[in-house]
Amino acid sequence: MIAKAIIRFKQSIWFIPSLFIVGAVVLAFVTTAIDNAFQHQLRLFLPSFAFTSVNLGRAILTVIATSLLTMTTITFSTIMVVLSIYSSQFSPRTLQNFISDQLTQIVLGIFIAGFTYSIVSLIFMHEREPETLVFSAFFAIILALISIGYFIRFLQYITNSIQIHNLIEKLSSEVTNTLKNKKKMIDEQKKSGSVLSGVKEGMIGLHKIHAEKLSANSSGHVQYIDTEGLIKFAKNNQVILETTVRIGDYVGKASIVLLIWNNKQEEELNCNISKYFTIGNYKNTAQDLDFGLQKLEEIALRAISPSINDPNTAMLSVRNMGTLLLEICKQYTGKKYFYDQQQSLRLILVERTFEDMLYSSFYKILNFSRDQISVFSAVLEVITIIAEHKDTRIKNILVAFCKYAIDGFNHQILQQNDKDFLNNKLKTIAELLDIEPKTILFA
């Protein structure tokens, strides 16, 4: 449930500003109450300039409220401009990265909170005597100065965020964090059981007799699967669960998402799918490595489009994808089998194989860059980066993908210097993969 709430909050821009608004109202109540009850005691600790008359306080609060409302409007307009740049220049999928960024939400929250505090304080100050000294206005000045500081920081953040290399680095870090979280989940499960991966189902010794099929409760993309909750449910009911969809897959209301292998009892079990599967209108990177790679892929595709024609950005994006795929291949092996402490199989989790992820990450780029040597050479660099890991499990996958990339490239545009340039990279790949160079070299 907590994971679902986090996903919803990250997709919204209103949550953190709403907290600031509530805090501002409470703060206005508190400062007014302190003004009324402890004014004489405060004068012993606070300097004299912290107190103003009611008339002066009203003037200050009015100016601050107006100014902060103007700054909020400017900030919101700036956000819309940045969103337009992200959508047109980079990828529509990267919009959520900017919207869900905490600094963006905090800046809006502080401005709105300052405005709310000033307005509420003005209402409370209405009943005070004109010559009464209050410190509510001084506190509003402090909020205004904090707002100015965050506004300057926000301008710097905007400047950095629209630089493509910073965005690519941020997206790469996002995928890395997702991979770390998945590894952490596996490690935690190993403490209370065991996890097998990269093995065939026939080696597990399953005896599937009776299967209960459960459908999704709504249509959309699978954003999150509560692995721990499913294992606990399976253990409590002495059954084996098997997911039939993967994170990021689009499902309909009639789509089968879970199988319950119940070999000991025939009655159906009451399993609330919505409790364990989060399905939404958009993909989410909480568990979806493919979605993070897709963002980098789309940046590369936009860069090689005729309207933008920026092959260097495409190469940078492709190289970052290669670095991420290297980390993925070290631990990402597709279907996983989760066991409890008694070494009884409880959950079969279907996930994408490395071969699928490699192909889905680059097939569009290869199809749209058949005539671009620079982008093709970057893809060969990716194969080199992964091949240097010397992982025998993926050797055949890399060989097949390398041949696929070469066969799809337009050989007719290559001149002798181009062939020499690409063949040098292919020779390195052939050596790393221990294959005959002539099988992949350009003639």
The gist of it:
The protein is of the alpha+beta class. It contains 16 helices and 11 strands.
With helices defined by DSSP (H or I, 4 residues minimum), what is the helix count? 16
Helix fraction, binned, reads 55-70%
Question: N-to-C SSE series?
Answer: HHHEHHHEHHEEEHEEEHEHHEEHHHH
CATH topology of the largest domain: Aldehyde Oxidoreductase, domain 3
- CATH superfamily annotation of the largest domain: Pyrimidine nucleoside phosphorylase-like, C-terminal domain
Shape call? flat
* % residues in beta strands: 5-15%
Distance between the first and last residues' Cα = 58 Å
The count of strands amounts to 11
Q: Could you give the order of strands across the largest sheet?
A: 3-10-11-6-8-4
The top-level CATH class of the largest domain is Alpha Beta
Largest sheet: 6 strands, mixed
Class by helix and strand content?
alpha+beta
CATH architecture of the largest domain: Alpha-Beta Complex
Total number of distinct structural domains: 3
Task: Walk me through the structure.
The chain is 62% helix and 10% strand. The mean pLDDT is 84. The chain has three domains: 2-162; 164-291 and 302-352, Alpha-Beta Complex (Aldehyde Oxidoreductase, domain 3); 370-443. The strands form three sheets. It has a six-stranded mixed sheet, covered by helices on one side. A hairpin with a 5-residue loop joins β10 and β11. The protein has helices at 2-11, 15-37, 39-45, 54-90, 95-99, 102-125, 136-161, 164-192, 227-237, 273-276, 289-303, 311-331, 354-368, 373-387, 395-408, 416-433; strands spanning 52-53, 133-134, 194-197, 211-215, 220-225, 240-243, 250-251, 256-261, 277-280, 336-339, 345-349. The protein contains 16 helices and eleven strands. The longest helix has 37 residues, at 54-90. The chain has 443 residues and is α+β, with helices and mostly antiparallel strands.
